[in-house]
Amino acid sequence: MTPAAVDPTCLEPRLSTVRAAEGTISELWDCLGVQTRAATGNLVALTERMHLKKVEGALAGLQGRYVGRQIIGVLEGSDDTVEVQVSLVPQEGGRYVERLVLHASEDQLRGAILPLLRPATLNYIWWAAERRPGGPLLTELTELADKVICDSLTLDIRPGRHYALADLGWPRLSGWREALAQLFDRPEGIQQLPGLQALRLTYAGQNPLPAQLYGAWVADTLGWPDLGGVTVESEDCERENGDLCRVELYGGGAHFVLEAGEGGVIHAQAEWAGGGFQSSLHLRRLPLAAGLAELLADARPHTAFERAWARVRSEPRWTVDLPTVR
User: Is the pTM of this model over 0.90?
Assistant: First the structure.
C-alpha cells in the first residue's frame, strides 16, 4: 500500500530519453524523499505490445523481490528517437522498483538497453515475445546476462558458459514432476524402477516441447541411455496448449499412470504383480508471476533442466529447423 504522505505526482510515469533516464529516475526518488535504494538486479523483458500488460502484471507479482530495476523493451519498428517511460512502481512494504519502458525496434534496443542497466549487479534477460529474434539483440544481451529466461527449445538458445539458462516451461511442469515422484514413495513402487523401459506422454494442442522436456527429464532421472523408449503424442484433453494430459510409465510387468482430471486434479494408478494402488492429488499450477519468481530466486544453472534440455535437442525425432542463438 502506498503511504498517504506520498505525492501522487511522484508515481506518475515521465517521458525521458536514454541519455536522460538516469537523471529522471533520480528526480523521482527525490520527489518521494527516499534516501536509500535497494541495489538489486536488472531484469530486461523483451515483448510485443499485445503482451505488454501480461508482462507488466507478472513483474508486478514479484513485489520488488530479486530485481530493483525492470526494463521492458516493446518490440515495434520506429524511426523516431527512442523515448523511455520512467516510473517508480510501489510494492508491498513501502518499497518501490524502477520501471523503464521503451518502444523501439530490435536495432534501436541494441544501443538503448546497455546504458540503462544498473552496474555491478545481476542481469536477468527474459525473452517474453512470441516472435523469434531476427537480429543480434538477444545474442548481445546474453553476453551481459547471469540468467536467460525464454522458451529455450523454440528459440534454440543453448546453455552458456557465463549464464544460466531457464525456461518458464520448467516450473510449469513442476506439479507433474512431483506427482510422478510420489508414485514411488512406497517401497513396493521403488522396487519396480529397474524394470521400467517405456514412457508414453500425451499433451494438449500443438506444442510438444513441454512434454518432450518432461520425457527427457524422466529418462535422465531413470538413467536411460537415450530417448528411444519415450513416445510423445497430441491428444484432445481440453487443457491449455502444451499442457500434459497423460503419463504412462511401464515395463517389467509394472504400469504407472498419471492422468489430468477436472479441477486441477491428477488421478494416479499403479499396478504390478501382486500389488498396486490408486490415488488422486491436486496439481500445483504456478501463475506466470510465481513461475518467474521461482526462476529468479537462484541465478545458478539448474542441472536437471539443462540435462533434459540437452537430451531433447539431441533426439533426432524431435529435431526441428530453428534459428540458433549462440
Answer: no
d(CA 199, CA 190): 16
Which of 38, 27, 93 has the alpha carbon at shortest distance from 68?
Answer: 38
Q: Mean pLDDT across the stretch 151-169?
A: 82
- What are the start-end ranges of the H helices in the chain? 21-32, 52-60, 106-113, 137-142, 152-155, 169-172, 174-182, 187-190, 209-222, 288-296, 303-314
Question: What are the structural domain ranges in the chain?
Answer: 8-145, 172-282
SS3 label, residue 249: strand
pLDDT value at residue 326? 37
Check if the beta carbon of residue 31 is closer than 8 Å to that of residue 10.
Answer: yes
Q: Given the C-alpha cell 540458433, which residue does it identify?
A: 324
What residue type is 93 in one-letter code?
Answer: G
Distance of CA 254 to the CA centre of its chain: 34
pLDDT at 254 over 70: yes
**Contact indicator for 133, 50 with CB cutoff of 8 Å:** no
Q: List, in sequence order, every residue forming a beta bridge with 275; answer none if it has no partner.
A: 272
